[in-house]
Amino acid sequence: MRHSKLLYYFSEVAKAGTLSAAAKTIGITQPAVTRSLKQLEDILGVTLFDRGPTGVVLTPEGRILARRVKLMTLEYKHAIAELADQNKGISGRLRIAAGPVWLLSILPPVINEFHKHFPEVRVSVTGPGFDASIQQLLEGDLDMVCGGLDFPDHANIIKEPLLKLRHTVFGRTDHPLASKNKVSAEELSKFPWIVLADDRVSESTIGAYFAANTLEPPNVAVETSYLGAITIAHATDYLSTFAENSRTEIEAFGLKKISHEGTFWEFEGGIARRRSSPPSSAFQGFRAILKSAVSEEN
């Protein structure tokens, strides 16, 4: 690559935040780093850093370039790994962010089957907030997001729908509403609610359900993790929503589906991946096993 050295220097300065620290990491003098940055800025016709008394900060143009350089570096590492895989067993890491229903009931058997075919690939599965996972996917820190696909389209994200996910209400087995055949929205509105932290979609859909029934949103009393929501709902009269696809697993924690009028929340679930990154052999293998597992369940 013609300007690969300049881009490397730029990347190190962006990570270090100071010219002196970057120069030490690279192994050249600070004036040489300064000259290289000036050359790159002249080539691109933009200012990449704002200089301050304590260091440098990326400009908006600099942030765009930093993101692209990170993806280029990632693709280069993927290429090296794939070339190495030609002569030995496939190894490496597959990085996945997954929503609660995927973590609880869909992915465990898929990961087990995947490792029968790709035993040397380490699978990293995390469950960050939805907004964070999409941003990490775009920045190259994730290979795949398994979750709801009801988010705005993005030019660099490919969505692959796999199944319909339907959320419904759960409470503890001896909840005051648990013995009723079907409860009204008004009855549901009288109890405190639990939502997942960093999940704005979940809370907005709860509000939309009650608005559709001409009711004010209920009291959202707790924001917590998926496990926290299950634990608190089991110990209190608080209500929460979970995907019906995980009903067996949810009920094993001592919760019960509360039948109610209307549909709470229904959406497509599946895989989201980066368009700019060709899928690796491990990615393709995992996707094929996941699709097969989902089709058998449905």
Characteristics:
alpha/beta, Arc Repressor Mutant, subunit A, D-Maltodextrin-Binding Protein, domain 2, 7-stranded mixed β-sheet, two-stranded antiparallel ribbon, 11 strands, elongated
Number of strands: 11
CATH homologous superfamily placement of the largest domain = Periplasmic binding protein-like II
Number of domains: 3
Given the C-alpha coordinates, what overall shape results?
elongated
**What portion of residues is helical?**
40-55%
Mean pLDDT: 86
Largest sheet: 7 strands, mixed
Mind telling me the C-alpha Rg? Answer: 24 Å
CATH architecture classification of the largest domain: 3-Layer(aba) Sandwich
Low-confidence stretches: none
Q: So what's the CATH class of the largest domain?
A: Alpha Beta
The SS-based structural class is: alpha/beta
Tally of separate helices: 11
How many angstroms separate the termini? 48 Å
Q: Can you write the helix and strand succession as a string?
A: HHHEEHEHEHEEHEHEHEHEEH
Q: Return the CATH topology of the largest domain.
A: D-Maltodextrin-Binding Protein, domain 2
Report strand %: 15-25%
